[in-house]
Amino acid sequence: MSQRFHRLSRVLALAVVGLLAAACSSTGSSSAGDSGSAKTMVGFVMVGSTSDYGYNQAVYTASQQLAKDIPSVNVITADHVPENNAVTQTMQSMVNKGAKVIFASSYGYYAYAEKFAAAHPDVIVLHQGGFETGKFSPNFGTYWGQAYEPVSLGGMAAGGLTKTNKLGFVYAFPISQTIANIDAFELGARSVNPQAQTYLVNTSNWCDPLKQKEAAAALLSEGVDVLSQHQDCQTTVIQTAKAAGKYVVGYHYDAKSLDPSGWLTGSAWDWTPVYEAITKVALSGSFTGSKYNANWVGSFADNDNPLTLASFGSSVPSDLQSKITAEQTALKKPGASVFTGPITCQDGSTLVAAGKTMTYDEVNNISCLVKGVVGTLPKS
Amino acid sequence: MNGVEQTLIGGVSGGTAILLPALGELIGERAGVINLGTEGAMLAGALGAYAMTESSGVIWYGIIAGMLAGAVVGLAHSWITVRRGGDQIASGLLLWFLALGVTSVFGTEFVGTAITPLSNIAIPGLHSIPWVGVILFDQNILVYAGYVLVAVIWFVFYRTRVGLILRATGERPEVVAATGGKPQLVQIVAVTIGACLGGLGGAQLSIGYVGNWFNDMTSGYGFVAVAVVLFAAWRPVRVLGGAYLFGIVLAAASVLQAHGVSVNQYLLDALPYLVTLLALAVFARRGRSETPEALTRSLSRSG
Fold this sequence. Notes:
The structure holds 2 protein chains of 2 kinds.
Chain A: H1 2-26, E1 29-30, E2 40-45, H2 55-69, E3 73-78, H3 85-96, E4 99-104, H4 110-119, E5 124-128, E6 140-145, H5 148-161, E7 166-171, H6 176-192, E8 197-202, H7 209-221, E9 226-230, H8 235-243, E10 247-250, E11 263-269, H9 272-283, E12 295-298, E13 307-309, H10 318-331, E14 343-344, E15 350-352, H11 360-364, E16 373-374
Parallel strand pairs in A: 2-3, 2-4, 4-5, 5-6, 6-12, 7-8, 7-9, 8-16, 9-10, 10-11
Antiparallel strand pairs in A: 1-3, 11-13, 14-15
Chain B: H1 3-30, H2 38-56, H3 59-83, H4 88-107, E1 121-122, H5 132-136, E2 138-139, H6 141-159, H7 161-171, H8 173-178, H9 183-210, H10 221-231, H11 236-258, H12 265-284, H13 293-302
Antiparallel strand pairs in B: 1-2
């Protein structure tokens, strides 16, 4: 018995070594260890890898830029933090190190960040992507961008270049952000090509390359000639389009280099201006009651959308490029929106009446796919 | 190309990423060792293959690196369980965690890069057979390796002395020892070769099918492979059927959606698991049990 225990403990010891090796990558790195100075410490908590060429890398890159641009700020980061109590522990250890401002950057951190803010009135806590419907603590805020705006511009590129009038969209989960993106993509496509339809395939996973491959291959065999997606990792879909000689519209980051001729355009995060603006307000002591002590949403109209239009690939003709940039300019006018009526749902019901425009709140709660989208959302 | 064809083509390519690890696991389990670290061997193989291909530019080196990376996991598992008498379940799970951590550390630099995956080779003559040709004989080399391995493993198991010793080791290691054999050596070799195939399955995923690497890209398919072996009642041809069936239903879920067919997505996601389980469970009831006895003992011991 004790011999068996001995053996098992050796196995455990081996595993602990392995887990430590793994943990080395996920512990925070402090960009400056100078604790004696008058610098303010700002923490960033991320759910994934700082080099995922996607959502988390965008957060990390902007956090490092923040440290460069505002000399009085010390940035600490933690990545691979799962969406459970580990978030609270990570935030607590950041506060113990002296952090005064914390950015919790994953959607699933919301409840933890909100509670943490209430328990730590002296720390300013911000959540990326959440939407507070109740009362705000004086030290809490959420921030996000109208992601669907640049997505609709990508849809225009797709609609303009498709020969089969069939566009494919690989998505992960039917959350409202994604539904808004799918609808905006189709609306953008149809604005330049009334025949364009968007075919949907769902993977139920933010990054499962095998399912992405099957999804992309299935769409291509259906006759789709432009693929787009809302996934955390986008390489597989780009690769599949490239191998088939088809087009792709990206999401999260500019991946034009992977396929310069197949890449049309896409949406890419640029969080630096947002982080810097929030940090400056926090440093000045005027956070409470400011626009960031609320649900702050960047948009083209306010010229502060953190999701920007990525670069154009070589296949996009210049007249289509100017059409798209003209639309981007048009969306910057106050009150302009992709979701301006008349827009009908798949089933023929009215989503937005003629002359009406959906508010951000309404888009955030969207549940219908617009006419021209082929496929259904999972019924829960 | 119609939807049915696309489903079968995708099913065979994707199913190969399950088949190769499952065949490896079959060899190990026939010798009496279950390896839940198969998922880890796949991850190691996927990264090893990708990293080598990406840095050397030679996809063949990648295939070899993938197999070697898998073999390292197998060697570790057999050393812990066979030489040191460690618990098979615990060792397998811990090696999976270890592989997950290590590949995430070393794999991060490859995330976001891409290589051209293995190209398909149409087999002259065979690929022009109507319908079957495009599905089975216009695939990449690792898919063909799957066909050959099933035949080779079947032959070795049931027609050779090596296979007899392997199966005897899985039933009664004491008898093998009494007749002058080395059951521990047989198990170590079997588990290592098995994990080597696990690594090859990972390679099929990263360099064979999708052409990139992402941390934890195997998404649990190594565990599916282990389950396929169990429900295939340790028979090579059934393992092939189970792995392809899983791949085909997985591909069908995408094809149906792309076709605009309205099916509950959550049901579609569960279907590959459900259908494979049911089919194999139904078949497993037929014929005498081939459950390796040493395996049942090692399993009940850990229970």
